[in-house]
Write a structure and sequence with these properties.
single chain; 308 residues; alpha/beta; Spore Coat Polysaccharide Biosynthesis Protein SpsA, Chain A; 2 domains; five-stranded mixed β-barrel; four-stranded mixed sheet; 10 helices; 16 strands; 31% helix
Length: 308
């Protein structure tokens, strides 16, 4: 994919760091959202931004917090998803075949296999989506895993701009109006600053995916890991002989299976504690049980707004 076709949405707290990490991208291809409005607003912004360039384009939405090592397989599956979206006019999502009964992911219930004009031996399977399921209780996650007809929802979407705009117009017109404003404005930044903070705060799954006219899911053939939780991040940190994972100078005594992350200088010491998550930043400190990691998002709304 040529760099000029890659568009990055970030937030203003991270904009400078993102630009430093991606010097090969044109400066105008990185935009900072002026407020937190969830994924539906972000997608609407991207649709309007992309339509300014090519209103008939095919769009791929990719979250940033995934680890994928099989680049060739990833490219192959995205190309297949783009073909499916162009041939069918459907919204296409990427599903990950579960490797365990994870209660922390949303699930997609798959239906029959789609035999499209481009289906061929060796192509990744594409299914009709029966419905989306929210993050389940552990017992229900186990049922999903054992049934075998569920995929993890990776939050990756592929569609043509006309197809997604059709769904936005039918299901959440406020976002479709915003797309039109972004697409037609002469002052992109001013329109973004004025309109974006007032958009509905809703996920793209709730906004259009769950009730779209037709949704397909392509089963990923590449490796995938979501590093959106501290438990996942721990898998990429060095560990000591007692399974304590850390990115910093850590000293322990009678401490096991802790996760420690710090972006401040200095050492951290743990004594007689197990299964903790300790995260230290320049303005906050988080300490919780690793068994409560899925509830950190519930805690976020209780801290001061500037820390959320």
């Amino acid at each position: 994919m040529p760099p000029e076709r890659i568009l990055i949405l970030t937030n203003r707290d991270q904009e400078a760091a993102v630009r430093e990490l991606l010097p090969h991208l044109p400066a105008e291809n990185i935009v900072a959202e002026p407020a937190k409005r969830d994924t539906a607003a972000a997608v609407a912004l991207a649709v309007g931004w992309g339509a300014r360039r090519d209103p008939g384009a095919t769009m791929i939405v990719l979250p940033a917090d995934h680890v994928i090592r099989d680049t060739a397989g990833f490219q192959r599956d995205l190309a297949a998803a783009a073909t499916a979206a162009e041939q069918t006019g459907a919204l296409v999502t990427i599903g990950i075949k579960p490797t365990w009964a994870c209660p922390g992911y949303g699930y997609i219930e798959v239906g029959e296999v789609v035999d499209g004009p481009d289906s061929a031996a060796g192509a990744p399977p594409v299914y009709n989506v029966r419905r989306f399921r929210e993050k389940p209780a552990p017992e229900l996650a186990q049922v999903f895993y054992e049934q075998g007809n569920y995929r993890w929802n990776a939050g990756m979407f592929v569609w043509t701009l006309p197809a997604v705009l059709r769904e936005l117009s039918g299901q959440i017109p406020e976002l479709a109006d915003f797309v039109a404003q972004v697409r037609g404005t002469k002052d992109f930044t001013a329109t973004l600053d004025e309109k974006f903070p007032h958009l509905p705060k809703i996920s793209i799954d709730y906004a259009i995916m769950e009730n779209a006219a037709r949704v397909l899911v392509l089963e990923a053939g590449f490796d995938w890991d979501d590093v959106g939780s501290w438990l996942a991040v721990a898998g990429y940190l060095p560990k000591d002989e007692h399974e304590n994972a850390s990115n910093c100078d850590l000293t322990t005594l009678d401490a096991r299976e802790n996760i420690v992350f710090s972006d401040r200088p200095g050492a951290i010491t743990l004594l007689g504690v197990n299964d903790l998550i300790v995260v230290q930043t320049h303005d906050a400190l988080l300490i919780c049980s690793r068994h409560e990691a899925e509830r950190i998002k519930q805690l976020t709304g209780k801290v001061p707004a500037e820390l959320q």
